[in-house]
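Late entry, adenosine monophosphate complex.
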Amino acid sequence: MKIIKDIKEMQNLSKNLKKDKSIGFVATMGFLHEGHLSLAHQAKEQNDVVVMSIFVNPLQFAEGEDFNTYPRDRKRDEKLAEEAGVDILFFPSPEEMYPENFQTHINVEKLTQVLEGASRPLFFKGVTTVVCKLFNAVKPIRAYFGEKDAQQLIVIKKMVEDLNMDVEIVPMPIIREYDELAMSSRNKYLNPEERKSAVSLYKALKKAKQMIDDKIFDTKIIIQNMEKIISSYPFTHIDYISINHISNLKSLKYIEIGKTLISLAVFVGKTRLIDNIWI
Ligand code: AMP
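Prediction complete; structure with ligand written out below:
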């Protein structure tokens, strides 16, 4: 596995590779887990070359968020990436990505006003800007993103469509722990007691699914039941529970089968966790 830190070097290599090979790309912030690795495996299956980036992007963290404490373990990540079949690990520094006098940003306007964007107003501008820069460095034909970050996936697809970026966005299912907690690098922050309460997110989502199976489509009632479940676990504090249309993210009064995203963000202790299901 080749490790590259320099953007120009990555671009030159990709330019050459692209002449006769397909490049699949997985963007991550590192501290890799099975969720990230499932993206790499899929990329390996569908492309000649797999590039993974590891970059904790300062632009998508607000003051007071966990940029400095975000878990990092470079040696472990290198080993896991190599085992997953990654051919090139792109590891730029913040200075390489954002030199002094950097001043250009990408903003998907409407889709970023709700859900994660409402709670974290700077987040998506940081995400779309970095993903665009990474695409320009890596030049992939396909890029793999997890449904774990459902709104991020929708926003990136919109950016690609609006700006005519020549890359196929491939969505990938959520990988879960043995007890169905969605895998996340941030799960590391949870102490053993909080870890037990973290299962409440998916428990609430499953309750919603069950209610819909029972033909209850009123989203207000579904959300009330989800709130009850989360609140019955200690250390939990709900940021939002929301039911939205999958393509425009408008809030829904009634479930539309095949077109509904149920998502939530919950603080468990100080750790903010997200999860979702697509109905
Ligand atoms: P991150 O390192 O958290 O920025 O995530 C990098 C990529 O991995 C994003 O496309 C995420 O949606 C995806 N990802 C993170 N966790 C999971 C998971 N549990 N299952 C599937 N994909 C995931």
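The pocket of adenosine monophosphate is lined by residues 28-29, 35-36, 38-39, 145-146, 148-149, 172, 174-175, 182-185 (CB under 6 Å). Will revisit in the morning.
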